[in-house]
Amino acid sequence: MTPLPILDNHMHLNPSGRCLEAVREFARAGGTHIVLVSLPPWSLGIEISAPEDYRKVFDRVLKIARMAEEAEKVKVFVVLGVHPAELNKFYGRFGLARAVEIMKGGLEVAREYVDNGRAIGLKSGRPHYEVEPKLWDASNDIMRHSFGLAKDSACAVQLHTESATEGTLEEIGKMARDAGLSPEKVVKHFSPPMVKACEKAGIFPSVLAGEDAIQKALAEGTRFMMETDYIDDLKRPGSVLGPKTVPKRTKQLIPEWGEDVFWKIHKENPEKVYGVEINI
Question: Would you say residue 259 lies in a domain?
Answer without folding.
Answer: yes
